[in-house]
Amino acid sequence: ARKLGRDTWCHYTGDLGAAVSERMSISTDLQNAVQDNQLTLHYQPVVDGWTGAIVGYEALMRWYHPSHGFIPPNRFIPMAEESGQIVELTQWALDCAARAATRMNQGLPHDIYVAVNISTLVFRRTDFVERVTDVLKRHNIPARWLEIEITESMLLDDFASAIEKLRELGALGVRIALDDFGTGYSSLNYLKRLPIHKIKLDRSFVNDIVEDPADAAIARAVLAVAGLLKLTVIVEGVETERQFAFLKRLRFTQFQGYLFAKPLPLETVLASLLAASGY
Ligand code: C2E
Ligand code: CA
Ligand code: CA
Ligand code: CA
User: Fold this and answer.
1) Around Cβ 279, how many Cβ atoms within 10 Å?
2) Ligand 2 center to residue 63 CA distance, Å?
3) Which atom belonging to ligand 1 lies closest to the Cα atom of 42?
4) Residue ranges of the EAL domain (predicted)?
5) Are residues 257 and 45 in contact, defined by beta-carbon separation less than 8 angstroms?
6) Alpha helix (H) residue ranges in the chain
7) For 155-193, what is each residue's pLDDT tens digit?
């Protein structure tokens, strides 16, 4: 029998389910997405709820596919993690965020940071700290302008080397936030050993916080522990005035959510910063 040539294999799609072949095509397309400028970062503010000041922005990836249209990060990030493409995407995001931070901080009276989400796979690479150092150097920006958001999952495998990396990043002056806090399992046990600066209270605790005494109790406990450990808390996913008022009564200070702003394109952010600065 004829050996299956590369061509035959490439064109064989017959038995693939629609979902699988769509996945494959999206993953292939992701390879061109960076070069073709289909990817962009949007920026969602983190606000001080007591002064109204914007303290920083979280960078969130957006992909406008030429034929599939908008593809949400919850769909393409996991694929990029599986294929390893997330490494390249994150490098691009760090560069983009550094450039954005430079523009945001032009003529502002106080510093504004841009936070980039870092996948476990990327964090675990031996050259991660070097990559971050390199971005800061190339863009010639102070380390405090660039923050990173990590999740608990990257601490599970090799806790000791994760801690070491976090220390190195901290020594550079890069601040680190633990994302989606409260959704893992051993949080409080290792929190005290983590050289991080912030935790982001997951929005699943915020949804029903006004009605659900259990959520309110958890939020209170997180705030108390964070206070003892001198960690800043950012509350994620604040959507209503009632949630905001309730959270302020619990004495939270930093907030993020649709109530304040959705993730926005850089140009929109720059225009609003300019307007707020009074020029
Ligand atoms: P995340 O890091 O937890 O980001 C917060 C998500 O909540 C964002 O969704 C944001 O748009 C959304 N959000 C913000 N405020 C509200 C609110 O008030 N209500 C509700 N319902 N949602 C709100 P998005 O942009 O779709 O991103 C989803 C996830 O994709 C992110 O969750 C993050 O895990 C991942 N992601 C996004 N960009 C990147 C990236 O550049 N790199 C990596 N590794 N992951 C990314
Ligand atoms: Ca995040
Ligand atoms: Ca989050
Ligand atoms: Ca998340």
Assistant:
1) 6
2) 17
3) 25
4) 23-277
5) no
6) 6-11, 18-33, 73-83, 86-104, 120-123, 128-139, 153-156, 159-172, 187-191, 213-228, 241-249, 266-277
7) 777 889 999 999 999 999 999 999 999 887 666 778 889
Ligand 1 atom with least separation from CA of 258: 18
State the DSSP string of 69-111: EEE-HHHHHHHHHHHSTHHHHHHHHHHHHHHHHHHHTTT-SS-
How far is residue 222's CA from residue 150's CA, in Å, rounded to a whole number?
Answer: 18
- 102 — phi, psi (to 5°)? -60, -45
User: In whole angstroms, how far apart are CA 173 and each of 89, 150, 153, 167, 195?
Assistant: 23, 16, 23, 10, 12
Q: Is the CB of 258 under 6 A from ligand 1?
A: yes
The token pair that represents 140 in the structure block: 């010639």
CB 138 within 8 A of CB 97: no
pTM value? 0.92
User: Ligand 2: distance of its center to the CA of 1 in Å?
Assistant: 53
Q: What gap in Å lies between CA 233 and CA 222, rounded to an integer? A: 8
Which residue is associated with the tokens 């007591």?
50
Pocket of ligand 1 contains residue 151 by CB under 6 Å: no
